[in-house]
Amino acid sequence: MIVYENVSKKYNDVTVVDNLNLTINDGEFVVLIGPSGCGKTTTLKMINRLNKINEGNIYIDNQNILDVDAVELRRKIGYVIQQIGLFPNMTIEENISVVPRLLKWSKEKCKQRVHELLEMVNMPYEENAKKYPNELSGGQQQRIGVLRALAAEPPIILMDEPFGALDPITRDALQDEVKALHKKLHKTFIFVTHDMDEAVKLADRIVFMSKGKVLQAATPEEMLNKPEDPIIRNFMGKLSYSRYCNDLTCADVMKKRILTVLETKKTLESVELMKHKEIDSIIVVDHEDKFKGIVTIQNIREHGKAGETISRITESNVDTVSVSTNAKDAFDKLIETNVDYLVVLNPDKTAAGIITRTSMTKALASVVWGDAE
Question: What does the angle CA 359 – CA 133 – CA 117 come to, to the nearest 5 degrees?
Answer without folding.
Answer: 65
